[in-house]
Design brief:
six-stranded parallel β-sheet, 12 helices, alpha/beta, 24% strand
Length: 332
């Protein structure tokens, strides 16, 4: 089969190589899956660069979430067992962790439903306890993680402020349903939030960016507001001033979704059931901006790492083989 492999950590375009390799053999408690679609995530870029908290043995195949097909023909969502990641034609995955792919979503959309939406749901509902009528501020609102949080916030009845970088991403955030879109490249985030909320500030801040985004968030979070720290896509890990949190009466909440799989595994399935319900109702739908063939995986990971993408890039191995749909098509 074909699979992308990393022999030496580095930038995705240079470090990832498309190779012919043997199909993976399932271990105890694992199943073999044919990859229907593999979503591109920021952790994939960190894995390739050797900067992720998990460092699989070299060589390895990146790709942390897929929609796949079991040998008996079931469509499932899975996290492949590294070092045999999802940017390949076949993977192995833990059988107990497989989740049914919603019928209302195609393969690419189903592949993009899992990590980003689970992170958003746990961050907004379990950690921040977002309530209907509250104001939610989402950084990187046009990206894969941010767009999921925007949709989940709207589904929860919140007023959503989306922060983006550039006019093209602003249009995407508007189409997602943000009540206010702030272009951080040309507008002052803090003053715009305070103006929009009549001086109160945002009740909940969803921050997958860190760096300057966190600094601005602390300046415009509401009394008894909650800042949910999801990641550091900016590359800068902020150092919160705890005296500031004390005098303004706000909370800083960490969210490591992967811990739920080990500490409270039943919660993952319960969350998936809720996401499936919301997808069936049309309240959420992964924003798949591009479907790329397997040969384009390294370029897709690089573009995500460079911050030039909107929505989700999804690798579909079947694309480009025969008369399959164009990379930006929606068929499966």
């Amino acid at each position: 089969m074909q699979a992308w492999r990393v022999h030496t950590p580095g930038e995705p375009r240079e470090a990832m190589r498309l190779e012919e390799v043997p199909e993976p053999v399932p271990g105890e408690g694992e199943v073999k899956l044919r990859v229907l679609a593999a979503n591109v995530n920021f952790p994939d870029a960190l894995l390739v660069r050797g900067q992720y908290q998990i460092r699989p043995p070299l060589p390895f195949t990146p790709g942390v979430e897929i929609c796949g097909e079991t040998e008996d023909g079931r469509r499932v969502i899975a996290n492949p067992s590294l070092p045999h990641g999802g940017f390949a034609e076949y993977v192995t995955a833990p059988a107990r962790a497989l989740l049914p792919a919603p019928d209302t979503l195609d393969d690419a959309e189903a592949a993009a439903l899992h990590i980003g939406y689970q992170t958003g749901w746990f961050g907004l509902h379990r950690r921040a306890r977002l309530q209907a009528g509250e104001t939610l501020l989402v950084h990187a609102a046009a990206g894969g993680v941010g767009s999921a949080a925007v949709q989940l916030g709207k589904a929860a009845g919140a007023t959503v402020i989306g922060v983006v970088g550039g006019k093209a991403k602003a249009r995407t955030a508007e189409e997602l349903g943000c009540d206010l879109v702030i272009d951080r490249t040309s507008e002052d985030l803090v003053s715009r939030v305070k103006e929009f909320t009549a001086g109160r500030g945002a009740d909940v801040v969803y921050d997958p960016v860190g760096g300057d985004a966190y600094t601005a968030s602390a300046k415009c979070v509401a009394f008894e507001g909650r800042i949910v720290v999801v990641g550091f896509a900016s590359g800068t890990i902020p150092a919160p001033a705890l005296n500031h949190a004390l005098v303004k009466n706000y909370s800083v909440l960490g969210l490591h979704w992967g811990l739920y799989a080990t500490k409270e595994p039943a919660s993952i399935g319960a969350c998936h059931a809720e996401l499936t319900r919301l997808a069936a109702e049309g309240a959420i739908k992964p924003l798949v901006s591009e479907r790329v063939p397997l040969a384009g995986a390294a370029d897709a990971v690089q573009r995500l790492a460079d911050g030039t993408t909107t929505g989700r890039l999804v690798v579909v191995p079947a694309l480009g083989r025969t008369s399959d749909p164009a990379p930006d098509g929606g068929a499966r």
